[in-house]
Amino acid sequence: MENSSISLESIQEAAMLRSGVVGNPYLAGGYLIGSSLLGFLIIIGAFLYNQRNLSLFKRSCIISFTCQENSLMGLQLVYSCLLTLLTMDALNLIVAIILGATLVALSCDVINCVLAENIWFLSRWFGVIIHLVNASLSIYNLHQPLSVARVRIAYSLVSVVIIIMVPLFLYVYNVPTFTLAAFMFLFALSIIVASRRPTLSPSTSTLKKLIMVVAMCNFLVVYVPTFILQCLVYTAANVTDLANYQNIYFNVLYFTNLHLIFDGLQCALFLKLPSGEEQQQQQQQLQEWRQQQWEPQQQQQWRQQEQQQWRQQQWQPQQQQQWRQQEQQQWRQQQWQPQQQQQWQPQQQQQWRQQQWQPQQQQQWRQQQWQPQQQQKLGFQNAGFTGSTNVYQ
């Protein structure tokens, strides 16, 4: 019983390990071809639905093929970047169809299958990188017309990434995974930084948000899950965990073959971008609308200013009259002060004389009051003295 239970568990584990695209090449090849063709149809539908800017797109492609990129500006540069993305998508589509066909036909040669898988794998990640770069450039173009120098700097960095990643992927085991992750997160961060700038026209703000959402969905759905599973595969503790993580990784890798669909959505959004003339017309319409909204407020302000001026005109004569009265009062005070001073001087002299005269007057009065009393006392004394002499006699 124990042996039968162990064998049953091992069979179930083997079945689990071989589930999904790993154990079913028809499912892997069919889904790979179907998702790739669906993305191709979305790209064609985007061009058929948005025929308004096709002439400008064709002109941009012709100028790019004739190596005259210096004459491109603004939206034409965005379309030249879109052409680069479509070239990478065409390579990925061809390789995906070849790889899917070999899986379905069960005629996969080791050399041919490995080569096709490597090309499909690299073209997929490079397509995601170009998608992120194009999104950041188009968002920047909504803020300010794009220049040739900025596009060259961005695609020079993409070229450096491709030159570094191809030999690392072919000859090094773990390094390309983390190197690619560093560049991927850097380009995703550039979209967030570019989206923080305001657009020239408020009508394109919704279009900017849609471009950012599609780019971030491409990054989060197509790349991030596979990167996390690659990290789990590299850090597996035992053989069983390694097999489980590899099974999940290959399933996710095939079932997230959706980058062509997101590229088709980006094409549709890019073809809706307004040209420089359209942006100028939108700005003029916006300015006219603002003037229409501004004129009643301005008229109200003018009325308030006129009322204030009328009040000032009514107030000025009154104010001038008050100023005249104040001047007259000041003049009167200036005329009155010398007279008052002349009046004050006799009064001050009289007060000083009174102050000097009062002690003398008081002293004279006291003397006048004291002399009769003194004479009376002396009379009394003389009378007493004569009386006493008479007695002695």
Strand content is under 5%
Mind telling me the CATH superfamily name of the largest domain? Rhodopsin 7-helix transmembrane proteins
Biggest sheet architecture: none
* Uncertain parts: 1-17, 384-393
Query: CATH architecture of the largest domain, please?
Result: Up-down Bundle
Radius of gyration: 53 Å
**Basic shape:** elongated
Helix content: over 70%
- The level-1 CATH class of the largest domain: Mainly Alpha
Kindly give the count of domains: 2
Q: Kindly report the average pLDDT value.
A: 77
Tally of helical segments: 11
H and E order: HHHHHHHHHHH
Tell me briefly what this model is.
The chain is mainly α and about 400 residues long.
Describe this structure in words.
The chain contains eleven helices and no strands. The chain has 393 residues and is mostly helical. It folds into two domains: 21-273, Rhopdopsin 7-helix transmembrane proteins (Up-down Bundle), CATH 1.20.1070; 291-319. Helix 2 (25-49) packs antiparallel against helix 4, helix 3 crosses helix 4 (75-105) and helix 6 (148-171) runs antiparallel to helix 7 (175-195).
